[in-house]
Description:
Layout (H helix, E strand, L loop, with lengths): L2 E9 L4 H12 L6 E9 L12 E4 L9 H14 L4 E5 L3 E3 L3 H11 L4 E3 L2 E3 L30 E3 L12 E5 H7 L12 H11 L4 E4 L4 E3 L12 H15 L5 H9 L3 E4 L2 E4 L3
Parallel strand pairs: 1-2, 1-4, 2-3, 6-10, 7-11
Antiparallel strand pairs: 4-9, 5-11, 6-9, 8-10, 12-13
Amino acid sequence: MTGRVAVITAWSRNREDHLRRQRAFLEGVRAPGAEVVRVEVGLDAEVAPVSPGIVGAHVPPGHHGVRVGAARNEGARIALAEGADALVFLDVDCLPGPTLLTRYLEALRRHPSEIACGPVTYLASAQRPRSVGELDAMTRPHPARPNPAAGDTRSAASDEYDLFWSLSFAVTIETWRRLDGFDEAYEGYGAEDTDFARRARAAGVGLQWVGGAHAYHQWHPAGAPPWRHLDDILRNGARFARTWGEWPMRGWIDAFVAAGAVEPHGDGFRRVAA
Length: 274
């Protein structure tokens, strides 16, 4: 696939250093025959200034926090208006590997009606790469997700759709329109990407694991379980369960239950009363 490819990132000020590094790395990543359109969507209440060469947008927080799904939808809307043929979504924490764009576009050429999803390496706190050329030596894809050989793709089995992460993926414009984007009712942390994958599976849209489309997640402090997102996880988990009949993020929820902060309630979960 050639033409215009939009690289879309939703970001907030607390990740501005990560965003700057991502911008710099994208300068060193090219796909033959493709023109890159950079779209960045701010998530903070205040509108951020737009940098030269970047198409900027703004999606302020909702009642329950940042609206990542809505920001990705807005980024896609802008990309369509800019004449993009393909959309690559890259989390603000992720650095693109040297062949990320090439491998995604190859996969979309072979599977234009499917979602393309590459491996993600979580960098350690001491790993601060300064150039794209340093990334190969740091490659250590997360073991929970498939990692085909570079240049290969593998179709996801039906029970693998819940492994989809919105950290890094690509679709054609036609597939994006068919899926109608992310459910914007999810606000704050969690579940919007699992819901997106479930809707893709229900619609018969395939998911391809793409070898060589490596992204590298920059380190930042995070809790295990993520206590600051507890209420988001319960709220978004309940919405997901109403749609799909089961709760997502069970690893985190089970950890909250074990810690005595959450308890089973009816068919779901709630905070333990103080």
